[in-house]
Amino acid sequence: MKKGLLVMLILMLSASMVLAGCSGNGGKKEDETNKGSEATDKPAETKKPDPTKEPDKVEPFTITLRHIQIGDAQKNRKAILDDVVKKTEEEVAGLKIELDGVEDQVNRYTKLPAEMTTGNPPQIFDLFGGKGDAQKYAEAGRLLELTPILEELGLGDKFHNLEQFMIGDKIYGLPIGGSTEGIYYNKKLFADLGIAEPKTLEELEAASDKLKENGITPFAMGSKAAWVPNMLINTLIGRYAGPDMVGRFNSGDLKFNDPTVVAAYDKYADWVKRGYFTKGDIGLSYDQMLNEFLNSKAGMMFDGSWRSSAFENEDLTKNITSADVGYINFPSVPNGVGDQTFINGNYSNGYGFSADLDENELKAVKAFIKNLYNEEMQVRGLHEDGVLPSMKVPASASDGVTNPVTKQVVDLNNNVGGQFSHFEIVITGPVYAETEVQLQAIIAGIADGKKATDSVQTVLEKEQ
What we know:
It contains 17 helices and 14 strands. By secondary structure, it is of the alpha/beta class. The strands form three sheets. Strands 7, 8, 9, 10, 11, 13 and 14 form a seven-stranded mixed beta sheet that branches. It starts with a helix and ends with a helix.
């Protein structure tokens, strides 16, 4: 009995010692516990790269950039684009940008619409704003929404006007720059013939008659692509129907066969009959129109402010210098509606981006936007290519302009009553196509203003 009690006491004492040891160091030996504490206090060692191990390889990838900067007259703008492409490729690992230069009308009316139909546009492409282009493609889900990207890049409030690239408050494209459209005239020819700078329609027609009398075409014109003469038609509508004509077309308040619009087309038809345009202009290209003016075969040319850079191009200007060229707003017309000092101005041409991008392509697009749409490139566009900035830049940006024609563009833009846009931004593609068909019918002498505008209005009503 005593022996049993002694064994039990020994067992109980052994158990209590084991429990005490467990509660003291978590079941570890004392030297192991201390080692753990010391390891925690020491800074972690930095793992050095293994010089024998190859770095992670970056998978190369290619995106396509469709642009319209082709031909000698666009070489300055192409040079800016090339610099942006180079910088973007340097910033994005593995990126190669493949440039696809396509003529403006081919891109806008043939290639891009076909690609949008199949859902396979380039990753980056030249894009016009308005219902017939950007807004239509955005509604079809083909364009990348840029609103969050602009906020991410800090560009959300940096643009003058993005309306033509917007649906509601969402942005789907970015204009490269702004532009106005007016009359370029040969100062030397005008001075030699004693012609003063025209301020009214009567004075403009008198100048045209004087030029004709001396064997000089009044207006260089290349109507092979009907958008070229349509620039002048748009300004005539702005004079006769008023500078709010685009909004009225959009609301339906202004019909295409309204008497004021008919008056604009009739005036163009009158000038065709009076021989004010280059003979055979329906077969002449846009570049040939410029050559007619540069070679002093025509005294005037109605064109966009973007053309101002051409007069600094030594390859083009053999017979005329930039100092010989003036740029003026289209003058007031008798019985014209509204402020006759408004000018046709737009922020309508820029870049759009495919909605179907993978992670790498999206990274490339963001870098491209950052590198193109900034103050440096906007000012370069103004100085080197005569393109008005689409973004807000300091007023001093124009101080560095050396091209005297571009200086006139900037000065004129600062002293007009306002701007009105092209009617094409509020009409569908088929309606705009009909305006081109009918304008060429007027040029060919087989339609007048009433017949032409009735045809356009008929198509417009079918589209509504």
